[in-house]
Amino acid sequence: MKLHCLGTAGYHPSATRHTSCYFIPEHSLMLDAGSGLFRVEKLLEVEEISILLSHSHMDHVFGLTFLLDYVSVTPLRKIHVYGEHVKLEAVRKHLFDELLFPILPPIEWHPIEALGRRFELGMAKCSWFPLEHPGGSVGYRLDWENLSLAYVTDTTASPQAEYWREIQGVDWLIHECNFSDESIELAIKTGHSWTSAVLESAAASGIRRLILTHINPLATDSDPLGLAKVDDEIWTARPKQIVVASDSLIVDLSSL
Ligand SMILES: [Zn+2]
Ligand SMILES: [Zn+2]
Fold first, then answer.
1. Cα 249 to ligand 1 centre (Å)
2. Which end of the chain is more exposed for a tag (fewer CB within 10 A), N or C?
3. How far is the CA of 192 from the centre of ligand 1 (A)?
4. Average pLDDT for the chain
5. Global pTM exceeds 0.90
């Protein structure tokens, strides 16, 4: 099962990253719909896809407006969008107000509250859980027969945060890490995570494979998360596999 990282920046695009969007073609499943969504065109070979939205901040939903193009040039005909009711309403009313965008693509909206905390999504059991973030966000856990994946963005990681209980034992965790340890104050203020806090919390919860993403678009050097500067103790205890996501990276989730 391949995870295509289509957009790996937080907040706004940079010369090398677009904003949050991930796609698993094998299950026609997308995680968030930021500006990176435009990279999906060549991967769309089916009539329907599902999109799980973490929340409705612009960097996670802007790409929904691109879908109109892809229903005309790919087999795509229907898009199922899942998220909290108020977030879906905000997107529908504001992003797709004709003053901002002229036509609503063929989207079917699925408020997750109506589905319960755990629902069937194609071949997966999908569960969702709240995350602390200005305006609120939700994380998702997907359990397929032989593989599990959790997606946690946007939030401030700490070993005490309740969501770690929901993702115990997952094979892969995609977790936001907008900031390096040099910007802890800004991370707290904006409801985001920093490198050491994510590594420490993930290790404490027994996470073994971690994909770090939602990366600060202003951090353009070769080590945007400052991994080389992480405290020895935290580094030694880190999850055994750490991937810093980049746009167009494909992660083979099946290689456990
Ligand atoms: Zn974000
Ligand atoms: Zn946000």
1. 19
2. C
3. 8
4. 97
5. yes
Give the distance (Å) from ligand 1 centre to CA of residue 104. 23
Instruction: For each of the domains in the chain, give its residue range(s) and CATH number, in order of start.
Output: 2-252 (3.60.15.10)
CA of 145 to the centre of ligand 2 (A): 31
Residue-wise over 113-138: b if at least 16 C-beta within 10 A, else e? Answer: eeeeeeeebeebebbbbebebeebbb
The 3-state secondary structure of the chain, one letter per residue: CEEEEEECECCCCCCCCCECEEEEHHHCEEECCCHHHHHHHHHCCCCEEEEECCCCCHHHHHHHHHHHHHHHHCCCCEEEEEECHHHHHHHHHHHCCCCCCCCCCCEEEEEHHHHCCEEEECCEEEEEEEECCCCCEEEEEEECCCCEEEEECCCCCCCCCHHHHHHCCCCEEEEECCECHHHHHHHHHHCCCEHHHHHHHHHHCCCCEEEEECECCCCCCCCCCCHHHCCHHHHHCCCCEEEECCCCCEEECCCC
pLDDT at 20: 98
Grade residue 164 by pLDDT with cuts at 50, 70 and 90: very high
| 8 — pLDDT class (breaks 50, 70, 90) | very high
- The tokens for 30 are 């997308």
Q: Is the pLDDT of residue 70 over 90?
A: yes
pLDDT category, 218, cuts 50, 70, 90? very high
Q: Name the closest ligand to CA 176.
A: 1
Distance 120 CA to ligand 1 centre (A): 26
> What is the pLDDT at residue 256?
78
Output the pLDDT for position 158: 96
